[in-house]
Specification:
Elements: H1 2-15, E1 24-28, H2 31-45, E2 55-58, H3 59-70, E3 81-83, H4 85-99, H5 108-120, H6 125-130, H7 135-153, E4 156-158, H8 159-172, H9 174-183, E5 186-189, H10 197-207
Parallel strand pairs: 1-2, 1-5, 3-4
Helix pairs in contact: 1-2, 3-8, 4-5, 4-7, 5-7, 8-9, 8-10
Length: about 210
């Protein structure tokens, strides 16, 4: 019933309250759920016009749209590339090999998972290095620093970066945050209870105003 409540609320805001679709943000977790949400809203609005729809999508797709406009503030190119999980693993293996890390002892996948967990807690490579508390974390930290450097040099991001970098822009550039707060005045999150820390902070920042 949560998705039904969300889609009906979007339709109610647009049809009954005359809220501009531009001022509504609807977020979910998977592309399948986003597609379902889009279909339901279009049916409720009795419209097949894309322009009648609010901004809706996954956390990553919404952040991707924001980053295409704003990522240059962090020194990336606006035409940055997004690494999928296979690309990430290829890069991780390369970093492990070139750093001389024992891949049997420190599996590239497990190093990537540790980096992913850190990013989902909004811990970048510098903060992670300050918090190292053991030998494994020391290796992860060295890997994280080099992995992130390679991404930046390639003007590339991974999936976890998309939310973390958007939050970083919002925190470091208050006028940019305010711009999106003014656009997204009504924010709805499907399965909100499942948000991780990074997703929660993103929504909290947008909703604060």
């Amino acid at each position: 019933g949560k998705t039904k409540a969300l889609t009906h609320r979007v339709a109610y805001l647009i049809k009954e309250k005359r809220v501009s679709p531009r001022n509504i943000l609807a977020v979910t977790f998977t592309n399948k759920a986003a597609s379902e949400m889009k279909t339901r809203i279009m049916n409720l609005l009795e419209s097949n016009q894309e322009r009648s729809l609010p901004t809706l999508g996954t956390f990553h797709s919404v952040c991707g749209r924001i980053l295409r406009s704003e990522i240059d503030k962090l020194g990336y190119k606006k035409n940055f590339s997004i690494l999928d999980s296979q690309d990430q693993l290829i890069l991780a293996k390369k970093v492990v090999k070139e750093m001389g890390i024992n891949a049997d002892q420190f599996n590239p996948s497990s190093l990537l998972n540790s980096v992913s967990r850190a990013k989902n807690e909004l811990i970048d490579e510098k903060v992670f290095a300050e918090r190292v508390g053991g030998y494994f974390e020391e290796i992860v930290s060295k890997f994280y620093i080099e992995y992130q450097k390679r991404l930046t040099n390639q003007s590339a991001v991974d999936f976890d970066d998309m939310i973390m970098l958007t939050v970083k822009i919002f925190k470091n550039f208050p006028s940019t945050l305010e711009k999106y707060q003014n656009i997204f005045r009504y924010i709805m999150v499907d399965e909100y209870q499942d948000t991780n820390h990074a997703q929660y902070i993103l929504v909290k920042l947008l909703a604060e105003k």
